[in-house]
Write a sequence for this structure.
């Protein structure tokens, strides 16, 4: 969810805001070089219903 | 105090401003273009086709085909059943959903959306949740095709821009809407949008909660319409779904359609006791309520069992929902083409996503404010609207009627005082050196709304406690939230809207003292009360306060009417039968 930014020195993308990754897998599905691997884990603490 | 971001301002002028880049906003833009509107700006908080719930619609789409289905039977089911509108439907909208849905399907096919087809090449439909017939498309490909059409049509798509407030005639509330303000989410540039009309299509409020991919839907459409003085309604309606306990995943419609079974800790399939008609195909609200009752009765945890699926069924799952196939594989649930273990499952509070609160509109998608149209999850919707079908039909209508308005309207100058007021409000979080990061309040709001005793099976004391906590956050913690960069400025404005929508939800739910399917379910008011509660809730900002009231359904104009009777909501009969106490 808009979590990537470009590292100034290397000009490579990196995950800047990990807590906001919603594990939607879209970045991995669309990555042209297969450089990404997404896990389904929640990054932000999530209360439980019981 | 120190302003930590350098803010520049950019003004963007168009004939029609559309806020939201999901399927409703895209349809509004395309239909307004068809109707002759030349300059259309479509603004997305993230990216068109990537940030809306329609990008993650799990590959299923309610499709009513007039040549194959019995309209009267479908109409009655969707009007009256607890798990559709539960009698709180809008007659005009229900007719339109059934009459115009086919046209939207034709649009999708024309624009290159891919559907699963049978041996004759016909679009394949399968009974899924609530036994509704649903077509299957290929997940994110639907919005990719729609977005491609939007770009080809020359509509100005403006990504990474969060709209925070609406501009009104002379800067006064409850007047004509003439534009909006917001900011670029990577540079914090202040953006002022002017136009002859505005279509609000920015989705509902999922509170960044327990469900896959609804983390961008944070209620700013509700918040900005409310602050502009629009009539709002239906916030007590449940937005319930369900998901694995330990990760967020969509696809339940597909899993139910393919034969997924819900079992309790004793391995018992229990849903037939709660829903004798639909059993494992039960709708989301009753599923969540039944799971909660089983846990209360000491038979938790609950699991979704799909270990009996064939390799062919697993293959179909992967085609229709590539993301949930990957999630299950990475979670160790799919090995090869086989599901190898049960998934612990639980409720997912959905907020106002798919059905529930929003701006009240008529069948032309006109809100109470001239020049402001609302569609999709930004409009108030009972359960019969159903996500994609409701969004496509209402989005197309919003574009068509907004175009008619634009042709007759004249542009008006922005009131500088109002613009400055909204600018100050938007950037108030960047004026601090330190404080509370938005995450603290995101989790704080979720801690109040996720417990099943508040949202799945409510009761007065628990609603009151949750409301007090939310009001405390509003008054004491929200003023301390700070945004160290533009990304956090978005999060801060999102959580500000979430706190407001949580208040709307809890107060509306307190107002409805009955239990009614896809609407409120309360164990202290366990009866569905068709004598006193065939009413819609309404709210608006009046003299700085949230005013709530009810409005009778115009039943004298309806062809199908709920019987004027009271009955114990079936959940409670089933719970008693299964030895679970409530009250």
């Amino acid at each position: 969810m808009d979590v990537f930014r470009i590292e100034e020195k290397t000009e490579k993308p990196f995950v800047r805001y990990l807590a906001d990754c919603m594990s939607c897998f879209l970045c991995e599905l669309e990555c042209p070089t297969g450089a990404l691997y997404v896990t389904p884990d929640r990054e932000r603490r999530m209360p439980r219903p019981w | 105090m120190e302003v930590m971001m350098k803010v520049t301002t950019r003004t963007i002028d168009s004939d029609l401003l559309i806020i939201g880049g999901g399927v409703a906003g895209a349809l509004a833009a395309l239909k307004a273009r068809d109707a002759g509107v030349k300059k259309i700006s479509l603004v997305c908080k993230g990216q068109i086709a990537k940030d809306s719930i329609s990008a993650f619609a799990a590959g299923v789409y309610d499709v009513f085909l007039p040549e194959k289905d019995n309209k009267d039977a479908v109409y009655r089911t969707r009007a009256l059943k607890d798990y559709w509108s539960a009698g709180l439907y809008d007659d005009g909208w229900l007719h339109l959903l059934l009459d115009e849905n086919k046209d939207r399907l034709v649009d999708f096919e024309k624009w290159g959306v891919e559907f699963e087809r049978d041996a004759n090449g016909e679009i394949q439909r399968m009974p899924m949740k609530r036994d509704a017939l649903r077509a299957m498309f290929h997940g994110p490909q639907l919005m990719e095709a729609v977005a491609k059409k939007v770009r080809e049509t020359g509509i100005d798509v403006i990504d990474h821009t969060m709209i925070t407030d609406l501009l009104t005639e002379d800067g006064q509330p409850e007047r004509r809407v003439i534009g909006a303000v917001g900011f670029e989410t990577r540079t914090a540039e202040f953006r002022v949008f002017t136009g002859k009309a505005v279509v609000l299509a920015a989705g509902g409020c999922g509170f960044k909660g327990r469900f896959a991919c609804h983390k961008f839907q944070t209620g700013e459409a509700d918040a900005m319409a409310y602050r502009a003085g629009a009539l709002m309604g239906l916030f007590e309606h449940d937005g319930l779904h369900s998901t694995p306990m330990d990760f967020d995943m969509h696809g339940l419609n597909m899993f139910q359609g393919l034969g997924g079974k819900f079992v309790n800790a004793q391995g018992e399939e229990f849903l037939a006791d709660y829903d004798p008609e639909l059993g494992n195909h039960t709708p989301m609200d009753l599923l969540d309520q039944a799971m909660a009752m089983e846990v209360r009765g000491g038979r938790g945890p609950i699991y979704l069992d799909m270990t009996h699926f064939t390799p062919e069924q697993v293959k179909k799952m992967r085609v229709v929902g590539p993301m949930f196939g990957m999630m299950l594989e990475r979670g160790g649930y799919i090995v090869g083409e086989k599901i190898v273990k049960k998934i612990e499952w639980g409720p997912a509070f959905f907020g106002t996503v798919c059905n529930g609160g929003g701006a009240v509109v008529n069948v032309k998608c006109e809100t109470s404010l001239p020049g402001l149209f609302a569609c999709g999850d930004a409009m108030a919707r009972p359960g019969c609207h159903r996500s994609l079908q409701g969004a496509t039909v209402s989005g197309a209508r919003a574009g068509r009627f907004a175009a008619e308005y634009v042709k007759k309207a004249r542009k008006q100058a922005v009131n500088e005082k109002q613009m400055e007021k909204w600018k100050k409000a938007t950037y108030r979080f960047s004026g601090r050196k330190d404080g509370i990061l938005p995450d603290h309040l995101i989790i704080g709001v979720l801690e109040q709304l996720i417990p099943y005793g508040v949202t799945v099976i409510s009761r007065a004391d628990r609603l009151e406690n949750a409301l007090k906590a939310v009001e405390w956050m509003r008054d004491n913690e929200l003023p301390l939230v700070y945004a160290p960069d533009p990304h956090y400025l978005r999060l801060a404005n999102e959580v500000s809207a979430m706190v407001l929508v949580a208040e709307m939800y809890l107060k509306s739910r307190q107002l409805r003292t009955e239990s009614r399917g896809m609407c409120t379910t309360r164990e202290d008011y366990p009866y569905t009360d068709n004598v006193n509660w065939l009413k819609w809730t309404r709210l608006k900002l009046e003299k700085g306060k949230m005013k709530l009231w009810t409005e009778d359904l115009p039943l004298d104009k309806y062809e199908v009417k709920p019987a004027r009777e009271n009955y114990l909501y079936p959940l409670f009969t089933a719970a008693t039968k299964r030895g679970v106490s409530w009250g």
Q: What stands out?
A: The mean pLDDT of chain B is 92. The longest helix of chain B spans residues 486-511. The radius of gyration of chain B is 23 Å.
